[in-house]
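For the sake of transparency, this paper describes our internal protein records without simplification. The tokens are whole numbers drawn from a learned vocabulary of local backbone shapes. One such record is reproduced below, unchanged from the form in which we store it.

. . .
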Amino acid sequence: MPEVQASRGLAAVVGLVLGAASIPASIPASVAAPAPAAYDDSAPRTWHVGPTRTLTVPSQAAAVARDGDTVLIDAGTYSGDVATWTQDDLTLRGEGGRAHLRADGQDAQGKAIWVIAGDRTTVDRIELSGAAVVDRNGAGIRQEGTGLTVTRSWFHDNENGILTGADPASDIVIRGSRFFRNGAGDGYSHNVYIGAVRSLTVTGSWLSGADTGHELKSRAARTTIVGNRISDGDSTASYSIDLPNGGRALVAGNVVVQGPASENPAVVSYGAEGLTHPSRTLWVVNNTFVNQRSSGTYVAVAEGASAHLRNNLLVGAGDLTSGPADARGNRRVGPAGFVAPGSEDFRLRPGSPAVNRGVAVPARWRARWEYVAPARQVRRPVAGRVDLGAFELR
């Protein structure tokens, strides 16, 4: 496959990227030749980026890509290269492993390593680190378009991992990704911060070590957080999950570990800034919650919410809930019934008091996924009566 698949007239492309200089001799004549008359120049193209390619850094691809194109970025580190992506239906993918975009003091528009302004963007196998800007709100990705899917990607040591604005038509999907050590230390920046979008879905991901801020904060009208690991370690993270404006929310099948240095006693918070969405329904189902503080609240619920807590395991001190909640089948247990709690492996051992102790949950709110380290999910099996917590005993 040539470096620009199905791309013709490459002389114009190279002119845009490299200036008015003539085409380098290293570009084959067959690639640089004019397109046949029958060629459809509007068809999506694939651009290859890497140190040995014609396009050596992703920002050069951002200057020439069009709607529907795919940008394949060779695995490796791209230091100080930042970009704004304006195209719709764009796919940005690491090739041969993760492509690491390291800010090294640079930013796009004073906002992020990547500002994504186009709609329906897919980001796969990309690593973004070190975003810091003057207003202390720098992000690995600042999402300004409508719709974003992130898979198999890492975000670390940024002021925010992903930061989105408000867009009632936008759906954000995060799968199989890692977010760690993000946050500016001011409590206003987080591992993941999703604004007032239509929906957020996070599955099979590991969020950890936020600096003072939340591990995950979502203002979405619908939030689905299923089959993840969310753990503070020794960081000063605040809420593990913050849903400040309510909305229809499902928190199911997650391992959530609040560390001893957490600066907020609540693990999950719902509606703390006002229930502004039409739906005020929260289901918290089959999670394993661990509190390493000496006290706290596992699920803090604002007055006026409709909260349902089912089949959760509680490890450590603290109240199950504050505020109104319908709670059934939840149980406090010690660490002995888990495979390796010291390394945050909370799969059940045979003989655990959690086995076959669950109560029925409506189908739409069940925990259908389990977390697999370090950043994957598998279908939760059905084996008789449901077990408590984030894992079904095999």
